[in-house]
Amino acid sequence: MGCPSGTVVAKGKEAGLLRDAEELERFLQDICTRSPLPVSVKTRLGLADVSEYERLLDIFCRCPLKELIVHPRVRTELYKGTPHFACYGETLEEMPFPVAYSGDIFSPADLGALVQGYPATTHVLLGCGILANPALGRMLKGGPAVTADEIRKFHERPLEGYVEKMGGNTLFRIKV
User: In this predicted structure, which of 33-37, 41-45, 69-73, 165-169 has the lowest mean pLDDT?
Assistant: First the structure.
């Protein structure tokens, strides 16, 4: 329930699932009951307003989830603006299962600030941060920053795969 893409949301997928709380709860209860594996959920705070999150938290508490991953923005904010950290903090306090943070971790300093503000944080989803900096995981463990050679390889490996699968005009076929 994290992707805010308009075409995806319009089909009732990803963040579009947040539109109808009753249907969302039925869906989650059904998935949790039928899945042979533990169920984790990634969510936003709502579609348009953080006030929607209170109801979502109630639903998540009633579901036997393994983990809740919180991207503390509503769908309409996409990836812009300041995350609603207080909502993440409330989630850490209320959920009966592990909670992970997702969003805006691009450096060790970003992670440090998050953990300083919310010491109960035990894990994060790096998402866009790892795409922007393929050495981020290493840096978070105290390792060196990305090298120019790593950036080149990070670009070339997927490009070679795209060319192999799609042919010569790969750049015109890739959707961003």
Answer: 165-169
